[in-house]
Amino acid sequence: MRNRYKYMSITLTPFFENDLCQGFTWTVPNEDLLAEQIAIIALGNSHHVQRILAGAGVKHANVNLEAAKDAIRLLTVPKDDSSQRDGWIFQCISWIAAHQATPNGIIVTPQMVLAQKGFDGMQIEIDTTSNKISAVIIFEDKATVNARTTITGKVWPEFRKLEAGERTNEVTAQVIGLLQGVPLIDRDEAIENILWKEARRYRVSVTITDTPDNSEGRKSLFAGYDQVAANPVERRRGETFLVPNLRAWMQTIADKAIAAINAKVAANV
């Protein structure tokens, strides 16, 4: 197995805010590597990135010209509004960070349609002793310049609905889909497990532009999390990414990802 750390495009720094929440802050030491991985995801090859992050030796696949055009379209701002494109890129970054935190994790792949309805992401954790689901982690990924307002106005209401038992059919369908390639798991038993509130955990990932990326800033940002999803702190995960000039930075990453796609196409000619 290769040194997988060589292929990590995000640096994860853990934090623990007492009983409020726990998680990671993100930094990006290598924008070119991150853009390369996002380019591969945009081409529809997220499994390729997953194997790279797990340290597996992976041969680079040929790039289909039509797939390249679709990928570039996904990374191009439609009608001068970058919010949906930036949201999709952030979902990819969140997915990459989740795989770095849990190599070979069972995590839903990023959506390939801008503004597609559904969960931003989901991960299941398996108890290796019993081969049963121990947790279902539901992601909310928000690329925004108004982090606190977005969390209180959009994230907390969704988590409250889930805590009240709403959208259980969606959670169930997503989990069953994730279990397709997992052997030795009883799907009927898995469904029973995810109906328990204690099995549901939450992960909110958000860009911050003006909130200090320190303990006090995070406490302010995630205030109320323990009231939205009560009981063990393990149920409440937070991820923060400090990026002062969000829209400009996202455009830089998109441009680099498009350049990476074009380079792959040229290499196949």
Task: Give a short account of the largest sheet.
Answer: 7 strands, mixed
Distance between the termini: 31 Å
Number of helices: 10
Strand content: 15-25%
Q: Supply Rg.
A: 18 Å
**Largest sheet, order of strands side by side?**
1-2-7-6-5-4-3
- Low-confidence parts: none
Structure class: alpha/beta
Q: What's the order of the H and E elements?
A: EEHHHHEEEHHHEHHEH
Q: Summarize the amount of helix as a percent range.
A: 40-55%
Mean pLDDT: 88
Large-scale geometry: globular
**How many individual β-strands?**
7
Description:
It is a single chain. The protein is an alpha/beta fold and 269 residues long. Helices cover 44% and strands 19% of the residues. It is built from 10 helices and 7 strands. It has helices spanning 31-42, 46-53, 65-74, 83-101, 147-163, 168-178, 187-194, 215-221, 225-228, 246-268; strands spanning 11-17, 21-27, 106-107, 121-127, 132-142, 200-208, 236-242. Strands 1-2-7-6-5-4-3 form a 7-stranded mixed β-sheet, with helices on both faces. Strand 4 and strand 5 (132-142) form a beta hairpin. The chain is globular and about 50 Å long. The two termini are 31 Å apart.
